[in-house]
Amino acid sequence: MEKHAASAMNGSSLQDFSSGDIHVLDDGRSINDFIDDQIKMLQSEDSEEQFLVADLQSVIDHHQQWLTLLPRVKPFYAVKCNNTPAVLRVLRVLSTGFDCASKAEIQMVLNLGVSPDDIIFAHTTKPMSHIRFAAAHRVQTMTFDSEEELRKISLCHPKARLVLRIAVDDSDSLRRLSSKFGAGLGLVEKLLGLAVDRDLTVIGVSFHVGSSCTASQTFHRAIADARQVFDIASVLGVQMSLLDIGGGFSGRDKCQVKFEEFSDVINAALDKFFPPDCGVQIIAEPGRFYVESAFTLAVNVIAKKNCEESGPGGQMVYYINDGLHGSLRCIVNDPAQPPRPAASSQGERPHRHDH
Ligand SMILES: Cc1ncc(COP(=O)(O)O)c(C=O)c1O
After folding, report:
1. Catalytic one among 23, 80, 137, 220?
2. Which residues form ligand 1's pocket by a CB distance below 6 Å?
């Protein structure tokens, strides 16, 4: 019998995902059964609170898939994607590393007992107080992409192990990042020279192809770009030992490009540009891949308006007790799966839904 573990969070903690009981479903119940039971329980208390349920087995399954298909690449889970404590605890047990983007995220991960060596501070524009915090807590590895960031790091954390983030082609991704983050290849020599002048240690290169990438070949080009940076560094006397291939993978079963296709392209590019005996450690910063299909938000339809007779295109409008300023705040970038009516609400006449 398949066993699932679900973490449920009630409405009051939706914003920070800060609490959540873990239930092991070893009685044959599915996640959907669990959600329906929760709804019934809330109804019996006359509560219409919305709540989130995480299927922790889905997180574990994605990790297994990662290990099988990308055996050379150690994942550093991108905490910003979803910092639910149960998810972070599961990932710690699975021995992933963690990509943190702020002091608060570093603190959260350190509180779980994660070693500072398993954290990359992967934000290229950090407040100086956050850099000092990282230094005080022995988090050494951090990214940069500008002269200004090098200046701040040399003042606050001169012993840091730096990773130069480069801008790569992200034109086939739903959420593009390279216009804001990453140095162009033309800037690499200057930045590495400045790091050497300031006695800073640059250990590697990172990139992010953009979230929800839809073209696997993008990774081939980005890894080839990273190889160029390693070669430029070598000419300057900087021997790099880390390649960070970022995130960008969807975690949905029905995504446009399957993870298998991405991993085939990545493995081939790594073997070509960074063969196994080259002494370079390969890491990544997947976020959505781990959690995108794990979470279900249960909401109540609290009102409906029949606009079907108001002319062509008219439809039934449903109002739910959560929205763009709450749990659905990421929906602009990542459209949600179509809603599923709960078992307990069967009997309503179904209408077409848009969102
Ligand atoms: C620096 C960095 N790493 C990793 C991620 C996670 O990306 P994804 O969810 O596409 O895997 C992001 C997302 O914004 C990011 O900015």
Report:
1. 80
2. 78, 81, 99, 122, 177, 208, 211, 246-249, 285-289
**Angle, to 10 degrees, between the axis of helix 128-136 and the axis of helix 103-111?**
20
Q: Is 347 left (phi over 0), alpha (psi -120 to 50) or beta?
A: left
> Is 80 exceeded by the pLDDT of residue 265?
yes
- Contacts of 135-140 spanning 24+ positions with Cβ under 8 A: 135/159, 135/160, 137/106, 137/110, 139/100, 139/106, 140/116
φ/ψ of 109, rounded to 5, equals -75, -40
Q: Which atom of ligand 1 approaches the CA of 165 most closely?
A: 1
Higher pLDDT, 355 or 316: 316
Give the Å distance between the CA of 1 and the centre of ligand 1.
Answer: 35
Closest-lying ligand 1 atom to the alpha carbon of residue 210 = 10
Locate the domains of the chain by residue range.
57-291, 303-355
Q: pLDDT tens across 206-227, in order?
A: 999 999 899 999 999 999 999 9
d(CA 199, CA 163): 15
Architecture per CATH, domain 57-291, reads as Alpha-Beta Barrel (3.20)
Q: How far apart are CA 305 and CA 319, in angstroms?
A: 8
Please say if 351 is a catalytic residue: no
Q: How far is the CA of 246 from the centre of ligand 1 (A)?
A: 7
Active site residue 123: no
285 is catalytic: yes
Q: Parallel, antiparallel, or unpaired: how do β-strands 281-284 and 73-78 relate?
A: parallel
Instruction: Measure Cα distances from 205 to 19, 134, 164, 238, 296 in Å.
Output: 36, 20, 5, 12, 36
Reported confidence tier of residue 317, pLDDT bands at 50, 70, 90: confident
